[in-house]
């Protein structure tokens, strides 16, 4: 997840996953609505790393 203060930083967050479907993963615990999640380029990240958000896409609402 990424902090939303003046300087965007990576925050390592433990999540509990539910069902998985092609292109979708259900998150049961560990995130709240509005959290920014890194989905690409995360292999070189570490807790506290500075990041620049360049393409923020809203998450799909659960059904």
Rg computed from alpha carbons, rounded to a whole number of angstroms: 12 Å
**Total number of helical segments?**
0
Order of helix and strand elements from N to C terminus: EE
Overall body shape: globular
Describe the fold and architecture.
There is one protein chain. The protein has 63 residues and is an all-beta fold. It has one domain. The protein has no helices and two strands. A two-stranded antiparallel sheet has the order 1-2. β1 and β2 form a beta hairpin. The two termini are 22 Å apart. The model has no long low-confidence stretch (mean pLDDT 82).
Give a brief outline of the structure:
This protein is 0% helix and 19% strand. The chain is mainly β and 63 residues long.
Topology:
Elements: E1 16-21, E2 24-29
Antiparallel strand pairs: 1-2
Based on the model shown, name its key terms.
single chain, 63 residues, mainly beta, two-stranded antiparallel sheet
């Amino acid at each position: 997840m990424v902090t939303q203060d003046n300087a965007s930083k990576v925050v390592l967050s433990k999540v509990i996953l539910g069902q998985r479907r092609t292109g979708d993963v259900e998150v049961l615990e560990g995130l709240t609505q509005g959290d920014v999640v890194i989905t690409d380029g995360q292999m070189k990240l570490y807790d506290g790393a500075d990041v620049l958000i360049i393409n923020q896409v809203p998450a799909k609402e659960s059904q």
